[in-house]
Amino acid sequence: MPTPSDIVKTRMYENDAFSKWLGIEILDISQGYAKVNMIVREEMTNGFKIAHGGISYSLADSAFAFASNSWGEQAVSIETSISHTRPVNIGDVLTAETSLENRSKRLAIYNVRVTNQDNKVVALFKGTVFHTGKEWE
């Protein structure tokens, strides 16, 4: 039986071109939990020369996907939201860490806290997934 880490790393991350393009590194995975990070690059900035909001959102969304799919069955996002709390700059190291808030047979709610290298919160993300019942093979 594959571990949560195996499922995420070999079945999800290896086929996730976008997370790879972002430069996401998986720091820790366990059942219902993920911690990932990445470095913000210049091509990720907007007209204000700060990171586009989609960058911290995408990091959080990947952490959310990895955590919610670590139970051994496939989970798909049905609702997400994010609040950006401070600007993100080129060279910042962002870390996204999940916390499972509630899980039933088919639905689960996660919070994801995104921090910078100074451990300052730059974004707060909330997501709901639907567990399909289809096992990872």
Walkthrough of the structure:
The chain is an alpha+beta fold. The chain contains three helices and six strands; from the N terminus they run ααββαββββ. It has helices at 4-12, 17-22, 53-68, and strands at residues 25-30, 33-39, 73-84, 93-103, 107-115, 121-135. The protein has a six-stranded antiparallel beta sheet, with helices on one face. A hairpin with a 5-residue loop joins strand 5 (107-115) and strand 6. The longest helix is centred in the middle third of the chain and has 16 residues, at 53-68. It starts with a helix and ends with a strand. The mean pLDDT is 94.
Q: What is the CATH level 1 assignment?
A: Alpha Beta
The number of distinct β-strands equals 6
> Helix count?
3
N→C terminal distance: 9 Å
CATH fold-type name: Thiol Ester Dehydrase, Chain A
Q: Give the strand order, joined by hyphens, for the main sheet.
A: 1-2-4-5-6-3
Pick out the low-confidence regions: none
Topology pattern, helix = H, strand = E: HHEEHEEEE
- Indicate how many domains the architecture comprises: 1
Classified in CATH, the superfamily is Hotdog Thioesterase
Report on the biggest sheet: 6 strands, antiparallel
Overall pLDDT metric? 94
What is the helical fraction, as a range of percent? 10-25%
Please report which band the strand proportion falls in: under 5%, 5-15%, 15-25%, 25-35%, 35-45% or over 45%: 35-45%
Going by CATH, the architecture would be Roll
What is the molecular shape?
globular
